[in-house]
Amino acid sequence: MQASIRLQRDERQQYLLRIGDTCLIQAQRLSEWTGHAPVLEEDIALANMALDLLGQARAVLTLAGSAQGLSEDQLAFLREERDYFNPTLVELPNGEGRPGDFALTVLRNAFVSTFLQLLWQRLQASSDEELAAIAAKAVKEARYHVEHAADWVVRLGDGTEESRRRMQAALDKLWPYVAELFEADAVDEAAADAGLGPRWAELREPWLAQMQALLQAATLQPPAVSSFRSTGRQGVHSEHMGYILAEMQHLQRAYPGGAW
Amino acid sequence: MVSTLAADRVGRAWAVLADVLDPEVPALSVCDLGIVRDVVEQDEALEIVLTPTYSGCPATEAIERSVLDTIAAAGLGPARVRLQRAPAWTTDWISEDGRRKLREYGIAPPAHIEPGAAVPIRLVPRRIAPVACPRCGSTHTERLSAFGSTACKSLFRCLDCREPFEHFKPI
């Protein structure tokens, strides 16, 4: 077994890992559709988006590890669960069984890609040149992801009785996990002070405006706001995270340093 | 004299790089694609500056290797590749020659992107600029999917000659 790495908590690194891990785990969930999507075009689309997200994750993890001399691979494969900082939203399963529910997948894509597009837009002005350069590339890719997800949310939400029922069920399930994205904390505060990137709370208004327009076009109603708060961005994850990590990490753990 | 030699070495490097093909779109060289941003001589070594097309492009590493192999095979001495992310690659950097080669290869080339014109996201139905079929030239075509067999392409179908084709999507 290859020993786990442990991170010394550092606000800058945690801010970067939140971004990198959001891309990494979202890519992992999307890639579960490879070979299983309802039609070939969707199989290709979901795999392409997973690939874009994985590329973005690699760049951000490389940057996050550089100060401590950690590589992207060490960060992706050798951390323990508590050292991953993605919001819980992205680690939730695609739905029951494999590959899961297409309605939930496209709705989450809409939530996450819209969020990331807003984040990358702001990060283009980061005081960190490398992060600004990663963002300038990623923002162009995110646009295609937003468009793809929004098309499906409208088509299925404003679709048949069955597709609408499933979209609404997905919305009821995912909506409580959205609040976490915009929680303010010391990590965001430090990033904003250093000019590294925006407080995620600042993205709440534009995100909500876009989602309201989308949900309205899709004839879907978000459920009432609840007091539930997920805590993935603090490293405290749902019961689903361990299973993703087991799948992602097992080759590197079984064959340390293995490459092909 | 030294500077002439250096210019010659850089010039020869550009010349051989024009034959390094993109492994995923082998109709185009890395120069046609516009991903070779610069070639400079530094500390006795040639430094080739590459800008990747997409964040997750799996061909990036293969391209780096074939660039270095080609420079070595041409006897141009020690060389290294530097990846430069900014400014971000855009399909506007594909040369006119490259666009012609794409069309001949059966891939519709990307339209030019208006400088600074951010296209607003619209909910369906959305109109996209017409893309001409690379086989019959008709613009009576439809997009089947914004994503294709590689990150840089989308899927189209010609409604006149009925042939499916790929489009190098503008980014």
TrEMBL record, chain A:
Molecular functions per Gene Ontology: phenylacetyl-CoA 1,2-epoxidase activity
Q: Which superkingdom, per the lineage?
A: Bacteria
* Catalytic class of the enzyme: oxidoreductase
Q: Keywords in alphabetical order, please.
A: Oxidoreductase
Quote the InterPro entries the UniProt record gives: Aromatic_CoA_ox/epox, Ferritin-like, Ferritin-like_SF, PaaA_PaaC, PaaC
Q: E.C. number, please?
A: 1.14.13.149
Q: Which residues form a coiled coil?
A: none
Pfam families referenced in this protein's UniProt entry, alphabetically: PaaA_PaaC
Q: What is this protein called?
A: 1,2-phenylacetyl-CoA epoxidase subunit PaaC
**Native organism:** Azohydromonas lata
